[in-house]
Amino acid sequence: MRQPTAQWTQGPAVPVVSVLVALVIGGIFVAISGHNPLVAYQALVLGAFGSPYDITETLVIAVPLTLAGLSVAVAFRTGLFNIGAQGQLLVGAVAAGAVGAALAPLPGVLLLPLTLAAGVTGGAAYGAIAGWLKATRGVNEVITTIMQNYIVVFVMHWLLQNGPMSAPNALGTPASAPIGAGAILPIVIPNEILPLSRLHAGVLLAAAAVVVFWFLLWRTSLGYELRAVGLGARAAAQAGIDPKRRVVLVMAIAGGFAGLAGMIQVSGLFHRVFDGFSSGFGFDAIAVALLGKNSPVGITLAAILFGAFARGGTIMQSNAGISAHLVEVVEAVVLFVIAAETIVRAIARRRGTPAEALA
Amino acid sequence: MNLDVLIGAGVLAATLRLATPIGLAALGGVITERSGVTNIALEGCMLVGAFFGIVAADRSGNLAMAIGVALLAGMLLAALHAVASISFRADQIVIGMALNILALGLTSYLDYELYGTTGTPANLPAVPSLDLGPIGAIPFVGGAIGRQSSIVWATFVLVVVLQLFLFRTVPGLRLRAVGEHPRAAETVGIDVRRTRYWAVLASGALAALGGAYLSMAVAGSFTDGMTNGRGFIGLAAMIFGRWTPVGALAAALVFGYGDALSVSLQGADIGGFVFPVQLLSTLPYLLTILAVAGFVGRSRAPAADGIPYEPEGH
After folding, report:
1. In the CATH hierarchy, which fold is given to the domain comprising A13-350?
2. How far is A178 from chain B (nearest CA, A)?
3. B195: distance to nearest CA of chain A, Å?
4. Can you give the pTM of this predicted structure?
5. Could you report the predicted ipTM of this complex, rounded to two decimals?
6. In chain B, how many domains are there?
7. Concatenated DSSP letters for A269-310?
8. Which of A29, A329, A344 is the best substitution to test chain B (most B C-beta atoms within 10 A)?
């Protein structure tokens, strides 16, 4: 149907330009609606990085974004478009929440690895379905994963509202029973040093996942094959690599990264699953992967930037009275500019700048 | 258990009500994908239609004006899609995602700026219902169709018009040719890009009408993100309906019926077993996956769907 991997040019110029363009357009937007853009952005930056506590809050959001970004990126690298990171994240969260609660009495040395395995396996299995349908029935993974995102939301409604996972709670929203103490990821900076800090050991898991992503793609023969398929399925086939066989595996790996993100949200942050859990990370992840050019360092930086947008936006709304939804406008423009990279190049050409200067 | 919760007039009326926005989005999807452009921003087009329709109704107090502004908003969002994906050959899925996020952010931002936390004003001009007079007095039939919104009826008309257009007219044939084999279409003198532009704009208008229906006929107000994935169900209906207007409407009616059941069966007790109504809502998505996979019939997309077209000699 289509080739989902655009081959982004090397170097950080296009991502940086896209963020700058987005910030300018966002600023114009703020000005038109009668606010001072500088005040808005100052509030946003201070909200995201103004104090050690703010920085940890930014990282709390960047952790699942990084993992979901890796999920989208590993598929991109193989020429697949994983729109399903959101659904895979939720399946991972449900699996981790179920195991963490059902085996609550177990000690941490057993329970934490089991919970982690449940999250990763859940996400991987859900991702593998899309890969399997693609490999065996030729179903476009974009369609499957879009549909899967919605299926899991309604299954969660049932599980939590009156299904087997529903448990009494004081949250005011349907939720599962809390996971056992052994399944909880510890806080990284003790609250005696940084009061209220919520940054959990999930940040270390995310860092490890970034290394795994790099190692897998650039230091293993499997990774070499996957990237070869991504660069051109026909050429890879001629080199003796069967693109179809790899599809299930890649979508499982992608789902595994997203499932880990879901598990971390449960084990590190909320300690249970609830209705409306972590909505949107999987969609932001597409922007994170594209902005980060599907590279380990790029994805990490892009996830921190989007984490800063989310955290800073909340503070901007409460301190400067400007709707946090401004951040979504900025994010959309970033995505739009990256997707329309050719537009940027066309403008550059018209100005007489060689396109290579942007690359 | 009372049979009315399955096939009562109330359930059928609700089916029509719930199927209409899905059907309109699906019609938009049929037109654009038949021309070879995948537009997953239908959700966003619906949302801007819902929002700007309400804003225009509030500012002008004029219903026709409000509908016009809603359609225009949807077409403007679709125009961004067209420029990026047709003229600049950007990835259509990424552009669609970007526009969905843009629509959600933009409408929520402006909603907060214009109406704060109090919500949109009450007593806005609403799309009138069509009173079928004596037919409304017929038992059952009257309850099901006696007082439906005029947009519901307009949707049925649009389905017929678009079905005839696509399969019985020369411009319709050209549009399909562009979506199946653009190179061949161009050699016989069809302007591929222009055809696709019009198709994408039309899809934006149709989806926006679906959004305006939600805000101006059903709810009477706008709330952030109120389309709530209906644009994507529309895409599902398009696929399940095999990329034809009549099929898309049929699929929308099936999905709408599932939605209506998930309301009417709420808390229904079937021999001591509480029916999991939430799982009914997964049906559109499950059926669509099965249909695309060929387990339930076989849905095939237009051959050039989603592939940017590069004119010869460029």
Report:
1. ABC transporter involved in vitamin B12 uptake, BtuC (1.10.3470)
2. 23
3. 20
4. 0.92
5. 0.90
6. 1
7. IISS-BTTTTTTHHHHHHHHHHHTTT-HHHHHHHHHHHHHHH
8. A329
